[in-house]
Amino acid sequence: MTEEQSTQDKRTPLYDEHVALGASLTGFGGWQMPLRYSSDLAEHRAVREAAGLFDLSHMGEIHLTGPQAGAALDRALVGAASKIGVGRARYSMICAPDGAVLDDLIVYRLADEHFLVVANAGNAPRVSAALVERAAGFDTVVDDRSDATALVAVQGPRAEEILAGLTAHGDVEAVRGMRYYAAAPATVAGIDALVARTGYTGEDGFELFVPAERAVELWRALLAAGEPVGLVPAGLSARDSLRLEAGMPLYGNELDETTTPYEAGMGRVVKLDKVDEAGAPLDFVGRDALAARAHSEPARVLVGLRGEGRRPARTGYDVVQRGLDGAVGAVVGHVTSGVPSPTLGYPIAMAYVTPEVSAEGTRLAVDVRGRAEPFVVVPLQFYKRA
Fold first, then answer.
1. Which residues pair with residue 338 across a beta bridge?
2. Which of 50, 183, 267, 360 has fewest C-beta within 10 Å?
3. Average pLDDT, stretch 213-225?
């Protein structure tokens, strides 16, 4: 990254906190973000064993309010947002007319006529613009509050304990009893927050939405409360290895504008049977293209790969058939993400491969600098918490 690029990147409200903590910073999605504070391994293990604190303020927060907010989202997204219960959340996608994924999202229903759409950082402006365009004609207001909102996440087995210790007495039970993919308002460290039991690490945890001007206060309070039980600040590098172990896709790696939900193994989020308020079939952007693909075999399939050696696969490496004596065979796909798994102790990867070699147990290889490193196809969730 050039100096010119780094000066053009936006800074979250917690930028100075990251600098003070000695973080290594990098450009990501148009933002200056902490890559690591100490070591990738230490931060990864802290999240698996205790807790990690993440700055997610680069994400987009787009609110839709009004009597037809749910109907507008049904038109705009592949999922049925109007069916989400108040206080619950759902993973969804926004697609182009040809079915390609423009972004993957989380949709929260905060009230009968109030939804929050959380978009990935680099895609937030175009998601916001697309929602404005697709909501035209509906009785709803689209309000992009990304710049006014900060988002921090506490992830790990001690997350509930840490958060509950800072939560106002009247809200503690709501936080402790909160279900996965649910959200509720709560006062945390004296700050009014929207608390959601969601995350991107494969661990229990919470994400807290607060006004940008209160971000530093909340960050410091969480660090102080969590330090005695092992919480550490964690950067993008640990976040990436954690989400990969949990089998969670990353936009720009597993998802992009050349990919449909079906190729990514996410066909379950596409609701082709949506109906409008009158019970008539509901058209949504990308429906025809997705319906045409729903029952046909995709040209490529996203799979998990477990390494049988020590050398890791990396993004962009070719997946090949195994040759004799370590020789590289015919190319059958490519790696989208790969790391040596800190938790499991062996290399793991996600890859798109041809359907013929996508069955669990298929023995393949990855071309690592001219040598065929052995891998085997496994279910995509490599790690599941106890």
1. 349
2. 360
3. 98
Dihedrals φ, ψ of 72, to 5°? Answer: -65, -40
Q: What is the pTM of this model?
A: 0.95
Q: Which residues contact 265 (CB under 8 A, 6 or more apart)?
A: 301, 302, 380
Residue type, 324: L
Q: Which amino acid is at 25?
A: L
Helix, strand or coil, per DSSP, at residue 84:
coil
Given 3-state DSSP classes, what are the helix, strand and coil percentages for the chain, each rounded to the nearest 5? 30, 35, 40
- Which structure tokens are listed for 182? 């649910």
Strands (E), the chain: 10-11, 24-28, 31-36, 51-55, 60-65, 89-95, 101-111, 114-119, 141-144, 149-155, 183-188, 191-196, 205-211, 231-233, 301-307, 318-322, 328-340, 347-353, 363-368, 371-378
Q: What is the pLDDT of residues 342-379, one digit of tens each?
A: 999 999 999 999 999 999 999 999 999 988 999 999 99
CA distance 61 to 63: 7
Q: What is the DSSP letter of 359?
A: S
Burial profile 223-251: b = 16 or more Cβ within 10 angstroms, e = fewer: bebbeeebbbbbbbbbbbbbbbbbbbbbb
Angle between helices 159-166 and 215-226 (to 10 degrees): 120
pLDDT of residue 326: 66
Helix 69-76 × helix 124-134 angle, to 10°: 110
SS3 at position 22: coil
Burial class (CB in 10 A: 0-12, 13-18, 19+), 207: buried
| Closest alpha carbon to 12 in 169, 309, 213 | 213
Amino acid at 69: A
Looking at 9-87, list the stretches that DSSP marks H as alpha helix, in order from N- to C-terminal side.
15-20, 40-49, 69-76
